[in-house]
Specification:
One of its GO terms (molecular function) is DNA binding. Pfam families: HTH_3 (PF01381). By secondary structure, this protein is mostly helical. 65% of the residues lie in helices and 0% in strands. The relative contact order is 0.11.
Amino acid sequence: MLIKEVIEEKKKDIAFAEAYDHEGRKLETAVALYHAREEAGLTQAELAQKAHTTQSTIARIERGDNVSFDNLMILPEH
């Protein structure tokens, strides 16, 4: 059996299908951020500075790790 067939069979389970779709959206977001950052000619550290976050947060997003939007909020400058 091909992996595609296994996934399609598993997706009959609603909880699995929702989790699978959620992970797919995270991956799409991670890839989009990576490509946008590269296209802008920015390093992770440069993007992090502009986004008022850390380089490690950008790296975690680009890996598709779970990152809270709290980590991405733009804080008011003092």
